[in-house]
Amino acid sequence: GSLATFAASARGTTTRGRAASASASGGRTRAPEDAVVGDVIAYSRKGETRLGTIDKADGKTGWIVREGGEQTVKVAKKTVEANYGAGVVARDMEAFANKCVEDDSLISSAWELIHELASGDEIIDALYVSDVVFGDVDAERAYAAHRMLNSPTGGLYFKTKAKGQYEPRTAEQIEALTRKAQAEARVEMLEHAFVDEIKAAVAAPRGDKPDPATLWRHDDEDNGARVRRFEALQAYALGDKFYSPGEKAMADDLLTKLGFSRSPESALKTLIATGAWSAHENLAIRRYNVPIEFPEHAHEATQALLANAPPDPDASTRLDLTHLKVYAIDDAGTVEVDDGLSVQALGDDGVIRVWVHIADPTRWIERDSALDHIARRRATTVYYPSEMVPMFPLALASGPMSLGGDKCEAMTVRADIAREGCVLDFEIMPSYVKLDRRWTYDDVDAELKSATCDADLRLLYAAARARDERRADDGAVTILLPEVYLDVKGATARGGEDEDITVNMSMLDSEAPARMLVSEMMVLVGDVVGGYGAREGIPLPYRGQNEPRLMSDDEWDRIPEGICQDIAMRMSMSSSTSGATPRPHSGLGLQAYVQFTSPIRRYADILAHYQIKAHLRGERPLPFADAETLERMTEDVGASVGAAIKSQRETTKYWSHVYFSRQPADARWRATLVKLIRGDDLALVIFEDLGFETVIKLDRAGVLGETLTLRFVDADPHAGFVNFARCEPTPTTAA
User: Fold this and answer.
1) Which residues of 705-714 are buried (b: 16+ CB within 10 A; e: fewer)?
2) Which of 9, 220, 317, 626 has the CA that lies 20 to 30 A from 90?
3) SS3 of 383, please?
4) Nearest to 338, CA basis, from 392, 374, 298
5) pLDDT band at 18, cuts 50/70/90?
6) d(Cα 612, Cα 537) in Å, to the nearest integer?
7) Alpha-carbon distance 424 to 444, whole Å?
8) Does position 707 have pLDDT exceeding 80, yes or no?
9) Nearest to 200 by CA among 275, 250, 263, 279
10) What is the mean pLDDT of residues 145-161?
């Protein structure tokens, strides 16, 4: 066939060139611009060369073309590439052209002969190639040549110079394009294999998912494309503000190839379905870049400290207070014991001497050491419902830094408290203490109710009440709102699988005496340290708060007493401020306040310890001698703390929604309507037995303070929403 024809015709085409093509075109083909109704034309549509018969005109610039059967399309005249006249069968032309395009040897052989016979820069057309290959230029063969020239293989051998005109490429150009095409084919093959792997991972049972490190591995052959796609998919899954336009485009491309919708929700589902993320993946940790694991050098530094304790710069001045009875009051699961209390009655005039012993981690770490930098970056211990993430490695935080041994280094604040709650005298000192007993909040609450209550606990509670009343007289604002306690088992801070996890919700008693006692003792220390820093002119991380934005008396009187007024007061409070110079804290009723009691779990407290301890030793200049330097440090730490707190709140919200989604369908909850939002349409409610706050949509007008019975409707924990509806009370109430 065709190759024989090609060889025979080739011997007679050495002098034809474009002239031969032109003469041939005068017989059986016409120019595209001369097309009329009934002609068969080739035209470009959707990036492909198509063939059809002109049915009728479509205005002055187009045709209505019948492509086959009864289907017609609109074709712009400017897209017509060739006109083969009337009296030919388009279907037969298309079938013959398809066979020729599939046979790459035809176009390559044509190039070889044309290249051999070319006398210079040769410009050819489809009719010339038809004559060379087939020895004829009838419509069927001319169209086949046209298709071959415009095929991918044709583009390898011939370069389009103008509409219908082509230039043979050089052998060097063909070799370069061949290598490029092979590389692109390899990339396409790798892409298909990658997409197939992802699809297989999605389809695999949960226990048979591939190792994410293998599935999303770095591969030099694809220039790290898998890793980049993985990173893009992860960023996209985190939602708005967390991905770039390029990451979105990359993720959308992959989701489309997988047959999924293009959205952050689909990206999240894909990551979970492939096993790269857990079913309860903690997005908040990723969104706010909260560090969870410690780097290897942190563990190495920790082991070095444990093996060889550094010199104690305060050893010569530490006061031995191991004779005092020291109580620690914490939650049952606390492992970082960073404060303890001692107490003594002084005389008969009601003065109570209180010692607050605070862990002294700066005795173990030096400023600007590796562990100091790590703690500064983490900024705070984060308490997720599923796991506590410490600021220091636990081997230190719950070990030598914690007040748990027989003789522990501490920073002690002694304060003599008058019956009226004012501080008569105080002292701040490095010390040695010995913990006598650890109490839980529940233990202390039970003990304070006992007729045989521990004398020291009773005295501490009396001091706390005196301080509370004094601060109230000085303008302190006390807001007593219930607090949700979530207990998530079987998950880590990063998440976990659904079948392994239990979620329980309960309510903490914010009015419990034990919590008030501890809170007042911590505020007492902040008052003493803040006052000392203000008196001595020490730059410290002071915290303040402006006066609340109070409403009018008439507005206040219209709000029911109790929890509704507490919510109204909370919403009127001003934001807290911080800086290296003293400032009033209206919420606490203090003129200067510095957090000092949690240096194991708050880096701002570490900064205060550095400054106070250096001042007590008489060091000048202080570690942070000027306020500007300390304020920059405080701002950086505050930003990290803010991110951690946001992640903690969002994580708590997530697990709350999981809890409600697992409750029985007939579960009902009683809730108090505490604030109307957007007129009578939305309302903030607080669940009576759980302390959980949420916004609900009202089906009818609500009244502040009324009790509603709610049922669960639906939730999407990862999307951050849960819906409840008001219903009539039923006998069944969720625990």
Assistant:
1) eeebebbbee
2) 9
3) strand
4) 392
5) very low
6) 11
7) 27
8) yes
9) 275
10) 93
Place of tokens 């599935």: 215
Q: Is 611 exposed, middle or buried (0-12, 13-18, 19+ CB in 10 A)?
A: buried
Question: 3-state secondary structure string, 509-554?
Answer: CCCCHHHHHHHHHHHHHHHHHHHHHHHHCCCCCEEEECCCCCCCHH
Which residue in 223, 231, 292, 325 sits closest to 644, CA to CA? 292
DSSP bridge partners of 359 = 410
Q: Give 97-142 pLDDT, tens digit per residue.
A: 999 999 999 999 999 988 887 766 788 999 999 999 998 999 999 9
Question: What distance in Å separates the CA atoms of residue 85 and residue 26, rounded to the nearest whole number?
Answer: 11
- Quickly list H helices, 592-689: 603-616, 627-661
CA dist., res. 448 & res. 327, Å (int):
14
User: What's the rounded Cα separation, in Å, for the pair 360 and 597?
Assistant: 10
Alpha-carbon dihedral of residues 103, 108, 113, 115, nearest 10 degrees?
A: 160
pLDDT at residue 405 is higher than 60: yes
SS3 200: helix
Residue with tokens 């692109």: 184
Omega within 30 of 0 (cis) for the link into 621: yes
Question: Which two three-digit tokens encode residue 115?
Answer: 């290249």
CA distances from 276 to 90, 244, 497, 703 (A): 53, 21, 12, 48
Region of 626 (left: φ > 0; alpha: ψ -120 to 50; beta: rest) is beta
**Residue 732 scores a pLDDT above 80:** no
Q: Exposed/middle/buried for 528, CB within 10 Å: 0-12, 13-18, 19+?
A: buried
458-to-331, 496, 510, 519, 675 alpha-carbon distances in Å = 19, 44, 19, 15, 38
155, 58 contact by CB (below 8 A)? no
- Record the pTM: 0.81
Strand 326-330 relative to strand 435-440, pairing: parallel
**578 and 542 in contact (C-beta within 8 Å)?**
yes
Specify the pairing of strand 165-168 against strand 62-68: unpaired
Distance of CA 581 to the CA centre of its chain: 35
The residue type found at 62 is G
pLDDT digits (tens, 9 = 90+) for 603-651: 999 999 999 999 999 999 999 999 999 999 999 999 999 999 999 999 9
- Token pair 């701040």: residue: 428
As a whole-number percent, the residues of the chain with pLDDT over 90 amount to 82
Could you tell me which of 353, 347, 325 has the C-alpha nearest to residue 524? 353
pLDDT digit string (tens) for 292-318? 999 999 999 999 999 999 999 999 999
What is 415-479 written as a DSSP string? EEE-TTS-EEEEEEEEEEE-EEEEEEHHHHHHHHHSTT--HHHHHHHHHHHHHHHHHHHTT----
The pLDDT, as a whole number, for residue 46 is 85
Dist CA 21 CA 31 (whole Å): 13
Question: Can you count the helices (H) and strands (E) in the chain?
Answer: 23, 25
Q: What stretch of H or E contains 177?
A: helix 171-203
User: Given 3-state DSSP classes, what are the helix, strand and coil percentages for the chain, each rounded to the nearest 5?
Assistant: 40, 20, 35
The pLDDT of residue 407: 93
